[in-house]
Structure to design on (865 residues):
């Protein structure tokens, strides 16, 4: 009984309904997507990442729109047709039609990577931090961020695994003169505004990831590695640091704060912080 | 060549055990894979529902659930480590024990011999063995929930040190070891099955079934199999190394200076990144192992549903080949911010964007296959159209993640979760449903209820878009994945409403409609004829369900390709592959 239904032409209604739904989906995606979802921008290179994202919203979003409109149109146009109106294209026509996705994807996807992506990537990753950058060491552990400043001497004291303990969370070497003025702060990272900041990222136990949503910074902290990254915060204020690599049961509450201060205030604050030893 | 297996194929084994339990018949093995996948899907689906409960109403009290899970939900409140076990096991079970089982094990076993005109697989005994190895694999995976510290909780990616060090997380106790063993057995099973598919497709095709006459499903399964066979060995090696790190004192993935609690671990010399490379060397091709068969099925369902040949058969085959080759060299796009060299990152980014080209060709060909058709909106066709829709939207979302620069912001966010649910969740699931509604009559000799099927389709499609498109937007808001709750961060507060909305879409609960339809129709569905969809491919030439040996006295001979619909001069609008030239209209 149902087999008969299957081999006979379906009424146009069902196909047109699906076409409407497909168009509706596109409309809803556009309306919802028009809201600003990205967190407020607060860093220099982040503007480049946002441009990359905007470019993809427009081009890839455009492809999504074309796809949905065409899909809906095909369904609408051929629903309820009792006979096949176009059977088979020639191999040549099929090859020719393939040129459209080839050209489109090459331009949109590869073009985006080469023209917009690579310069930003190179600035964030491949370029060394400017010499005037302030260097801060951030060591992740379950489930906290240890922030270390080098103190007045500008040199980080030596650390050693053997010295690690609950009282000495970084294993700082007391014998080392450079370690004497190192400043250690838990879960709070202070940086001066509009000044390049170089972060030396480390981890003591498992992999964590250092995520500053507003600054478009995300970098895994890997045990056994010291990973450098640098960026320029452009807004004064307090921002959240989140962990974005599964690191244990407290992953969801591994929260730190980034406090970006005017230069003078920052210098004062670091001077006033007591050193670790 | 098909006569090779005909000696034993003629006589069906008589005992119940040889016939339905330890059977070497590819059809029984396929159905066994299916039923296993369905069973695991119920478990893995329920895990997802538990996760959604927690995400919508964090740390709410569910006294009844407290009784069901005394370990993980003491007094009815979910523990964070239990939530992470749910995340881990939902992912692992769905990817390997549901989608792989059903698409590769189920459809692969059932369809390959029938669609190429063979009497059975090349190695029927190996086939049975492959199927029975998944039983302990599945049982070990599921049993891990009942261990003292619960199931593995380091994510389906199992990154060490979290997965290697017992102190790192409760799930890193025996749960993680069980996870490794379960995966190892899964790989053993896949390898046996894969060798079988590969050999069967290359050697047992019926007379006249040239490669370019194969249905797309067989092509896609062949390529998926090759990919799996090439990509799984590195994961096997990695799993053995992880096992040694956990229980043998080695340090493949563990560097010096690991400090847990108040203890310095003695390990030194390893690197956690090595695991990521080995894992994703499998992990990325695995995506295509699952995607390709779903796409192949969509093509094969669309042709009889539009009464016309598919568009761009050759270009699609070439695109599948290109996707397969490229998928082996883009694994690093999962590791852009992992600490891997940024120069390598750009290489992977460029390679990943290359994959969008053949993928877009496949999408365009699926779409163009509709042009000029005379549609039959069966449930199978609706789901095949769903494959097209989700493949388009999901694939385009992938460009955001494959572009290294935008991935800096989106990596490990809900954008990723939304994206892969569109692809290895949605495309594959819709492909599975399309295939099941389409081939169910062949498998069981009865039709599934079309009415229930259509309700199932609409109630799956729309919530699916809301749920997983919603997740894309949450990711743009910066929401990290694998969080037990979003209560601790200021910048995530505004999204809690979306999380509640996603949960009440009850996408998971709708799937019970399908289960009901499946089992109800198994006994009560109307009898299916031999070829209910008026399709051209070989499996429809066999009775429904086909007997042992599939073809009775003589194996069919193939005279034309798989998509001869609406041929000029043929009184009926389809010309089966077995129709000799000279009859049934002009040959392609």
């Amino acid at each position: 009984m149902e087999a008969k239904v299957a081999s006979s032409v379906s009424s146009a209604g069902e196909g047109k309904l699906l076409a409407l739904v497909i168009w509706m989906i596109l409309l809803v995606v556009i309306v919802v997507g028009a809201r600003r979802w990205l967190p407020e921008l607060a860093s220099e290179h982040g503007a480049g990442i946002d441009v990359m994202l905007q470019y993809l919203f427009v081009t890839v979003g455009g492809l999504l729109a074309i796809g949905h409109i065409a899909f809906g149109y095909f369904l609408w146009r051929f629903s309820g047709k009792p006979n096949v109106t176009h059977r088979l294209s020639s191999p040549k026509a099929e090859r020719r039609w393939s040129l459209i996705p080839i050209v489109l994807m090459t331009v949109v996807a590869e073009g985006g990577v080469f023209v917009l992506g690579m310069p930003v990537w190179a600035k964030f990753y491949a370029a060394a931090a400017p010499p005037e950058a302030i260097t801060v060491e951030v060591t992740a552990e379950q489930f906290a961020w240890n922030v270390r400043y080098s103190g007045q001497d500008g040199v980080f004291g030596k650390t050693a695994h053997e010295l690690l303990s609950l009282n000495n969370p970084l294993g700082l070497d007391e014998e080392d003169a450079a370690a004497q003025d190192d400043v250690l702060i838990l879960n709070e990272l202070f940086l001066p505004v509009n000044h390049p900041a170089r972060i030396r990222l480390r981890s003591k136990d498992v992999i964590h990831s250092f995520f500053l949503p507003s600054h478009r910074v995300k970098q895994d902290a890997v045990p056994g590695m010291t990973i450098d990254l640098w960026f320029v915060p452009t807004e004064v204020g307090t921002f959240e640091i989140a962990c974005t690599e599964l690191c244990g049961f407290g992953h969801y509450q591994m929260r730190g704060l980034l406090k970006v201060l005017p230069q003078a205030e920052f210098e004062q604050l670091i001077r006033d912080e007591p050193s670790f030893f | 060549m098909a006569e090779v297996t005909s000696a034993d194929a003629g006589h069906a084994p008589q005992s119940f055990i040889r016939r339905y339990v330890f059977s070497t018949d590819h059809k029984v093995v396929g159905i066994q894979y299916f039923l296993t996948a369905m069973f695991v899907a119920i478990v893995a689906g329920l895990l997802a529902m538990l996760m959604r409960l927690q995400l919508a109403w964090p740390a709410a009290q569910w006294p009844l659930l407290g009784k069901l899970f005394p370990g993980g939900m003491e007094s009815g409140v979910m523990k964070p480590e239990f939530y992470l076990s749910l995340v881990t096991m939902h992912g692992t079970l769905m990817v390997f024990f549901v989608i792989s089982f059903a698409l590769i094990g189920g459809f692969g076993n059932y369809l390959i011999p029938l669609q190429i005109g063979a009497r059975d697989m090349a190695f029927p005994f190996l086939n049975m063995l492959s199927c029975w190895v998944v039983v302990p694999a599945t049982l070990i995976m599921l049993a891990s929930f009942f261990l003292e510290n619960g199931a593995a909780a380091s994510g389906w990616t199992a990154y060490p040190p979290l997965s290697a060090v017992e102190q790192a997380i409760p799930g890193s106790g025996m749960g993680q070891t069980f996870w490794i063993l379960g995966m190892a057995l899964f790989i053993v099973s896949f390898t046996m099955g894969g060798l079988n598919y590969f050999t069967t497709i290359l050697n047992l095709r019926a007379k006249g079934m040239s490669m370019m006459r194969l249905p797309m499903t067989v092509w896609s399964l062949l390529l998926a199999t090759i990919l799996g066979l090439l990509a799984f060995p590195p994961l096997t090696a990695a799993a053995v190394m992880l096992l040694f790190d956990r229980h043998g004192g080695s340090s493949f993935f563990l560097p010096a200076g690991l400090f847990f609690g108040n203890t310095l671990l003695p390990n030194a010399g390893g690197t956690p990144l090595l695991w990521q490379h080995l894992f994703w060397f499998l992990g990325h091709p695995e995506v295509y192992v699952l995607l390709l068969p779903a796409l192949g099925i969509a093509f094969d369902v669309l042709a009889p549903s539009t009464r016309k040949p598919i568009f761009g058969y050759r270009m699609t085959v070439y695109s599948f080949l290109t996707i397969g080759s490229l998928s082996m060299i883009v694994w690093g796009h999962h590791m852009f911010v992992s600490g891997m060299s940024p120069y390598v990152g750009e290489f992977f980014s460029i390679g990943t964007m290359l994959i969008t080209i053949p993928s877009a060709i496949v999408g365009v060909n699926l779409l163009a296959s509709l042009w000029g058709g005379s549609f039959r909106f069966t449930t199978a066709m609706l789901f095949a159209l769903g494959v097209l829709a989700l493949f388009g939207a999901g694939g385009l979302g992938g460009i955001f993640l494959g572009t290294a620069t935008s991935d800096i912001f989106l990596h490990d966010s809900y954008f990723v979760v939304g994206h892969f649910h569109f692809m290895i969740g949605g495309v594959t699931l819709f492909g599975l449903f399309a295939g099941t509604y389409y081939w169910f009559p062949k498998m069981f000799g009865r039709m599934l209820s079309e009415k229930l099927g259509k309700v199932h389709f609409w109630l799956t499609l729309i919530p699916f878009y809301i749920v997983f498109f919603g997740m894309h937007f949450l990711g743009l808001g910066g929401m990290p994945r694998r969080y037990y709750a979003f209560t601790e961060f200021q910048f995530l507060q505004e999204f809690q409403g979306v999380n509640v909305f996603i949960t009440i879409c009850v996408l998971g609960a709708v799937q019970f409609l399908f289960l009901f339809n499946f089992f109800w129709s198994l006994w009560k569905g109307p009898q299916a004829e031999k070829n209910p969809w008026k399709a051209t491919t070989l499996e429809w030439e066999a009775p429904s369900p086909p007997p042992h040996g599939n073809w009775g006295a003589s194996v069919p001979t193939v005279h034309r390709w798989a998509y001869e619909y609406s041929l000029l001069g043929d009184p009926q609008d389809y010309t089966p592959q077995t129709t000799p030239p000279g009859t049934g209209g002009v040959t392609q």
Observations:
- DSSP finds five helices and ten strands in chain A.
- The beta strands of chain A are 134-141, 144-149, 183-186, 188-192, 197-203, 208-212, 217-221, 227-231, 237-243, 255-261.
- The longest strand of chain A covers residues 134-141.
- The helical segments of chain A are 2-7, 12-34, 44-78, 91-126, 263-272.
